[in-house]
Amino acid sequence: MKKFIFDFTEGSKEQKDLLGGKGANLAEMTSIGLPVPPGFTISTNACIHYLASKEFPQSLKKEIQEHILTLETKTAKKFGGLTNPLLISVRSGAKFSMPGMMDTILNLGLNDQSVAALAKKTDNPVFAYDCYRRLLQMFGDVVKGIDKSRFEDYLSHYKKQKNYSADTEMLAEDWQQVIEVYKEIYLEVTQEVFPQDPYQQLYAAVEAVFRSWNNSRAITYRRLNHIDDALGTAVNLQAMVFGNSGNHSGTGVSFTRNPATGEAGLFGEYLINAQGEDVVAGIRTPLPIKELAQQQPKIYQQFQEICQLLEKHYRDMQDIEFTIEEGQLFILQTRNGKRTAKAAFKIAIQLVADGILSKKEALQQLTPEMITQLLHPVFSESHLKTQTAIAKGLPASPGAASGKVYFTAAAAKQASENGEKVILLRQETSPEDIEGMVVSQAIVTSRGGMTSHAAVVARGMGVCCVVGCDSLEVNEFLKQAQFAEGKIVEGTEISVNGTTGEIYLGTIPCEPSQEFPLLEKIISWAKEQGNLQVRANAETFEDIQTALQFGANGIGLARTEHMFFGEERILEMRKLILAENKQERQNCLVILKDYQKYDFMEILRLTADLPCTIRLLDPPLHEFIPKESELPEMARLLNRPLSMVQQKVADLKEINPMLGHRGSRLGVTYPEIYEMQTQAIMEAALELTINEKCQVCPEIMIPLICEEKELAYLKNILEKTIQTLFEKYQLTIPYKIGAMLETPRACLTAKSLATTSEFFSFGTNDLTQLTYGFSRDDSVKFIHEYQEKKLLAEDPFQHLDLAGVGQLMQTAITQVKPLQPEISFGVCGEVGGDPQSLVFLKEIGIDYVSCSPYRVPAAILTIAKLAK
Amino acid sequence: MKKFIFDFTEGSKEQKDLLGGKGANLAEMTSIGLPVPPGFTISTNACIHYLASKEFPQSLKKEIQEHILTLETKTAKKFGGLTNPLLISVRSGAKFSMPGMMDTILNLGLNDQSVAALAKKTDNPVFAYDCYRRLLQMFGDVVKGIDKSRFEDYLSHYKKQKNYSADTEMLAEDWQQVIEVYKEIYLEVTQEVFPQDPYQQLYAAVEAVFRSWNNSRAITYRRLNHIDDALGTAVNLQAMVFGNSGNHSGTGVSFTRNPATGEAGLFGEYLINAQGEDVVAGIRTPLPIKELAQQQPKIYQQFQEICQLLEKHYRDMQDIEFTIEEGQLFILQTRNGKRTAKAAFKIAIQLVADGILSKKEALQQLTPEMITQLLHPVFSESHLKTQTAIAKGLPASPGAASGKVYFTAAAAKQASENGEKVILLRQETSPEDIEGMVVSQAIVTSRGGMTSHAAVVARGMGVCCVVGCDSLEVNEFLKQAQFAEGKIVEGTEISVNGTTGEIYLGTIPCEPSQEFPLLEKIISWAKEQGNLQVRANAETFEDIQTALQFGANGIGLARTEHMFFGEERILEMRKLILAENKQERQNCLVILKDYQKYDFMEILRLTADLPCTIRLLDPPLHEFIPKESELPEMARLLNRPLSMVQQKVADLKEINPMLGHRGSRLGVTYPEIYEMQTQAIMEAALELTINEKCQVCPEIMIPLICEEKELAYLKNILEKTIQTLFEKYQLTIPYKIGAMLETPRACLTAKSLATTSEFFSFGTNDLTQLTYGFSRDDSVKFIHEYQEKKLLAEDPFQHLDLAGVGQLMQTAITQVKPLQPEISFGVCGEVGGDPQSLVFLKEIGIDYVSCSPYRVPAAILTIAKLAK
Predict the structure, then answer these.
(1) Which pick of A234, A637, A729, B242 has the fewest CB atoms within 10 Å?
(2) Annotated catalytic residue: which of A49, A67, A453, A562?
(3) What stretch of H or E contains A482?
């Protein structure tokens, strides 16, 4: 027969899978001699067994009875006994603590007889009957699902009748009366009498815990937090100690350090003469833990020592529950304390300073999410409490911001110039919206996923962004957005939480992040650990500076097309696209080259001796063309007949632009564009070398390659251009030409590409689109449904798909690395900054990842945590 | 030193790589004792060497001299000799005969002195000076590029002056005068005197042959016919024999069988007293070969015997050149004769009947192109001669047709109903054009590639089609198409050649194909050979019937969406898409189910015990929605507000529909559609089993799968539906559920899909799109340029890309076959019917291919030819 139950004296803190977090820690504390009331844990295996068979195992009942007997012996009390009754607390305890789970039932074992015995034994009938009514209330609520308010309303009514203002005024007779009514409520709702048999109470409580594993709140929580549904929960049964047994008793919780700021010193609160739930319930105001030093100095001293011991033992800040019974201290729970990002960073640094943790161990306590949280402004918690979200979308770029809504980039820009704080709200954004996006406090779209244009650009800029917010019905033409209870019009003030995806009406005050020095220290530690480099996807002065400050080891992706979207530049770009002959095209290219050269000077100067990968023009040309309605204006600006502009725009239209005339394909059909870009890059590099003694080595990257001959053709064009410049400047400098691996075919034929390419970078966004046949722009229509139906474990645009995309990447690396180990493999798609994906990327031998500047520190931390 | 030259006595017919086709056959005929004038072949290696070094190798000159000496000995003549001069013919001869190559120079070695010697020796000065002027003319034209008309115009002028009507009237003095003027023309154009040194003539001629390998016509021809540029050409030098040396001399060509009809018996013509080029030149009318039997019965007898010998020796119909010199027969060339498809089939069947070839060998003489040619109507050759094409596109579906142009499906349909023969001319077609396509004699589009909608549908229907005809500027709104010299308007009559891609103005008479019995015999032989099955992509009664008649082994792809495009059905489909609630949707589905069930009855009844794979709905829903301008009409028909229809259409719009909400994704989000289709299929199957005792086993195929969970989810829905029907009908019949492998991810994870899928079929069209990131619809914009720049050897939509797409397919098969050999792998994309791709498909272990009905016989033949 399988053993389902473990006494607290049997387990240890490592056994969380079996005993749950709470059980494992109770066992651990017992084993190191702390004053833990005796008890035992019903393992997660029992829960799994129960859920599979839908039956309470007979053998488990027997095992419970045996352990209760032991407990009776240890405590010299008897479960359901009529002289000195043993009372039990029942608490759930999964491996990870989860909301929605059945939590706690106290005082189990009391019935109409034993309550009298308890009253007699303690000589405290008020206490005894209070315990019984609490049991009735908790059991009714938690096990039988009776609405709590049924009990509470009656108690309020009773106290009012009696003119009592607090529970403490209640006499034993009062509680007895209340108990009678509670039992009636119980009978009325459940059509059963409250069970008098303590074992019946016990089994029902345990079964309720098991069942609560599969209630909908718990399921949702697990899905959101990627917790395996098969883990199951444990149940802890423990002899009761009573904080409500008089004025030398009490109960409280304390952190070993401040969980909000990380400051050292106990941080908690307690209540005299109270049971656990009273602290949380908020009926009486608890006292700060420090006051215990005055009230019970010896107990306080003992508690402080235990706290220090536990922190050292667990090597982390602890969150501890305790009870004092008649001047005797009991520890009921300890766990690693939840903390804000700021506190986490401070505590990690302190623990290293205190010699408790090594740097490497301290890094393990930090998560990438904490960095995100640390860096972005947040809504003030107190103000947020009073608000209700009107809509919720995908949290695409963290942060918090308020402002007035505008529905077009132009309107947003105009308003911003008038000094307004603006929020751009659109169905979706496109590159031409960039000037409106730049000036916005936050960007909200009703369509698109985590890697939509809005999301990518916003993250790149570190601007708060919510996408795919489909409960907002945005009509850009009417300049309004409908939501369930109203509508937003131009100028409506809203607040956007990019960390949660929630949208609020009105302005909510923000608290800016001021934590950069903390982060800097952690990044420097992290960089000592990892061997996988982190670069940034960036091309503007601000972004590159941010990235380098955040520890980026160079630029892994500078997108040259982003530089064409300035107001003057896009006009030149449009002229280029509409040019009627080579001469006209050449004229535009001369002007564009000067712009680009200026940009590349700045980029290469900033990155200096760090690597810098510049990608040649990638998007289809029609992305540079404005919308239908703006064509007349464009024709006027370009001084061309409208019909000609319309014809050209129609010619550029593609059915599947993602699979169309873009990237290397533009390079093949318009080699002069890539020549111009190469000239701009290399002239900048040469002039920096000559005039500023910089040591630069530009890495020129060609996008969308799918065939070796294509790459060789383009490389040849680039090299000829470069050779001409070397002759002109009478100087040769190092450079590299490489291919982006973003089509499945490029990955499959990497070996042949490697004869031409000097480096590779996986473009995982496009590679994912092509491997699945999912359009990033369109898949939002069905990808949620796939996730809900569990057909996709995760959005492959957020977390690398190992089986498909990962396999292609591995194929490429395996083909090339053994023969040409000098060829580096980077990743410059969104997953390059995704902590979860980094595990696999490191495993397959990626040399560097590149992500948006604000994701750089999290990536560095993740890699450090992966280091052996 | 490398040996560059081989005497005719040294080689054999197997050495075509080294000696070229002509040289190898001259050597072969020499070795079997036929009367071939002596000579030697300069090998292709010499050409390759020359082209690489751009220099005429000294060693080659020496070798030539040595072989000329041998020739002098054999013929007892002397090259450039003044008593009995040796004259030489120079002919190119590559491995494959090619137009555009420098062909022939006769009488080489003559000069001002030796011509007199020849005159004296032969006592025939007319002959001698005629030979010399021919040399001047041919050498000037072929080696020096002097426009032929310069010579011809003068000769005409001279004869007119003299009142001669034919060359035969020319006297020696006349030729001498002409020679003087020819030499002046030569000097004027080349600024050189005509070389008197015979060796100088010879080297120049050989070099000219070498150079002609790289003239642009030759290059184009090689590209079109996939001939390797690196092969090079050989040069044959041979002692002259003279058909123009009197009335017992002559020259001619003959096939051993009729090359147009395949009938047995010599088929050729000859001229008395003439040199080779006179037969072709058309100045004198040659006589049918049969007349030689009267004129020179002994020679005819000898020739006939040689013809029979050569046909047996080469085991194929021969095309033979001969010359009679003073009553003596010489054979100058033999080669396998070019023939029409019809002749090829007849000859192959005859050769088997004659015991010359086995069936297997006979099949090797037939090509898939011949089947295509055999099956489709063709323009009458005599009428075609007088026409010039006005435009040329991609030959998407073979055949020939004439009719009046219409620019919309509706107009085409209307005109067709009025009894007109119509040709649909559009920028591109979409599924809603289907009713216009069905009634058209031919379909022409200005955009799109070989696998565009128009091309695929037209091939499926066996309708002549030209796509990507971008020299036609089609404006559907103005109903006109501009071409270089004019424009086509509605009602203009044009003729379309789907075999060549050419478009003509006016009507050209057609000759229909009547050759089905020939084909039937060949298919039956072919089916004895291959072990790779051929199925058809078909769903209409006509197509399935055609496919089965053509030898298809079942249906590999019945596209259920094609069944929704009928006029009534599409209305129901549109109602379904616009339904506002489940009830409305359900109502439409009931009606659609009846339509589908009727179709499936027909399909399954026709295919009977052959396998039949039915694919569930694949395209995105917006493909069923008409264009913007037709929405008001649709709103009226559906009785819905226009705004609602517009909104729905806008919602369905996708940026990259190819990567969007379609295929299995529709199945996941609208399971009721797949349920309906499954019901229709299985009810049809059950009722056929019960009422008609058919033994059917429908294979239901789910498109666009990219994940095992997705497949399992859908399979479960289908199976539940089927189980319900089995209970209802009280009968269980066999069926299979399988996945289409058309995303890279499906191929990469085939092993996990195989736990759920009972069969697989590669959708190579979509797989190619995704592997390259090429949209079939859009890639036409750049794919030509890729081919011109040799960045893509071939269009991967026409011929399977082995390195990328092929690798993915192989990965899938390798993952699954060893573990689950019972799972079949089919191919149902366009390349399934492509002979070139079949080699690879057979190699990787594909179980069957499926292609449009008209491609079935060619596929069967190709597979038979591949059989070991």
Answers:
(1) A637
(2) A453
(3) strand A480-483
Contacts of B791 in chain A (CB under 8 A): 668, 707, 709-710, 713
Helix (H, G, I), strand (E, B) or coil at A717: helix
- Cite the DSSP H helix spans in A340-395: 341-353, 359-364, 368-375, 381-384
Contacts of A759 (CB under 8 A, 6+ apart): A613, A699, A701, A736, A738, A823, A824, A825, A826
Average pLDDT in chain B: 91
Q: Whole-angstrom Cα distance, residue B715 to residue B106?
A: 75
What is B763-821 written as a DSSP string? -HHHHHHHHHT--TTTTHHHHHHHHHTTSSSS-TTTS--IIIIIHHHHHHHHHHTTT-T
**A453 noted as active-site residue:** yes
How does pLDDT run across B430-479, given as a tens digit for each residue? 877 888 888 899 999 998 776 677 877 786 676 889 988 988 999 888 89
Token pair belonging to B770 = 């995704």
Q: How many CB atoms lie within 10 A of CB B121?
A: 16
Output phi, psi for B304, to 5 deg: -60, -45
Q: Which of A92, A100, A64 is nearest to A209 (CA)?
A: A92
pLDDT confidence of residue A280: 54
Look up residue A598 and give its two tokens. Answer: 């200026």
- Residue B231 half-sphere exposure toward CB, CA atoms < 13 A: 24
Q: In A, which residues are within 8 Å of B773 by CB distance? A: 658-659, 704, 706, 742-743, 745, 766, 770
pLDDT of B692-731, one tens digit each?
A: 998 999 999 999 999 999 999 999 999 999 999 999 999 9
Q: What is the dihedral of CA A117, A118, A122, A124, to 10 degrees?
A: -100
Retrieve residue A432's tokens.
């031409």
CA B690 – CA B696 distance, rounded (Å):
11
| Closest approach of B784 to chain A, Cα-based (Å) | 10
pLDDT at B599: 94
Smallest CA–CA distance, residue B851 to chain A, in Å, is 23
The answer to whether the CB atoms of B659 and A659 lie below 8 A apart is yes
A481 CB-side CA count, 13 A:
28
Count, residues in chain A: 868
Identify the DSSP state of B337: P
Q: What's the DSSP call for residue B613? A: E
DSSP state of B442: E
Q: What is the DSSP string of B37-52?
A: --EEEE-HHHHHHHHH
ipTM of the prediction: 0.75
Q: Do B665 and A710 touch (CB under 8 A)?
A: no
Residue B511 confidence (pLDDT): 76
Which of B859, B830, B798, B765 lies closest to B534 in space, CA to CA? B859
Question: What sign does the dihedral A45-A47-A51-A55 (CA atoms) show?
Answer: positive
User: Lowest-pLDDT range, A363-372, A439-448, A727-736, B276-285?
Assistant: B276-285
| Cβ atoms B483, B542 nearer than 8 A | no
Half-sphere exposure of A690 (CA within 13 A, CB side): 12
Cα separation, B342 vs A375, in Å, equals: 79
| Inter-chain CB pairs, A–B, below 8 Å | 175
At B694, the amino acid letter reads: C
Dihedral over Cα of A726, A727, A728, A732: its sign? positive
Q: Say which residues have a Cβ less than 8 Å from residue B459's Cβ, sequence separation at least 6.
A: B396, B397, B465, B852, B854, B855
Please report where in the chains the tokens 């009748």 appear, as a residue.
A161
Question: Which phi-psi region, left, alpha or beta, contains residue A809 (left: φ > 0; alpha: ψ -120 to 50)?
Answer: alpha
**A38 close to A71: Cβ distance less than 8 angstroms:** yes
- Contact between B212 and B102 under an 8 Å Cβ cutoff? The reply is yes
B361, B370, B520 from B349: Cα distances, Å: 11, 14, 12
